[in-house]
Sequence to fold (118 residues):
Amino acid sequence: MYGIPKKLNLDVVTGSECTQIRVGQFDIQFTFGEVNFAVQSKIILFKNEVEVGFWEEGKWPDSVFYEIMNVPVESVRIHGARTIVITLEDGLSIHLCDSSEQFETLKISIGENDPWII
Fold:
């Protein structure tokens, strides 16, 4: 809804690993180190630039989501105003998309700081 703020710094994610994925009826949540993501919009997974999975509200995530666990983050980048790309060391990349002009789609909490609402 709001787009990804230019001030959002996710460098602290680099080197960390996800150890748990939580699936709700309308969101999917996961943590990399001290950064928590609660996503209510489409997530697309790519492996070596080929789409291999996705999640969207109201559906169970594809089984490839298990592959994001326990793999260190190689890099995080913001692609345009609407996508965060988390690339893992095994070539898998997670594309978090702010796909709504009307509703909030992402909540990102870093440590004890106030969350970023996107």
User: Anything to note?
Assistant: Residues 53 and 65 are 7 Å apart (CA to CA).
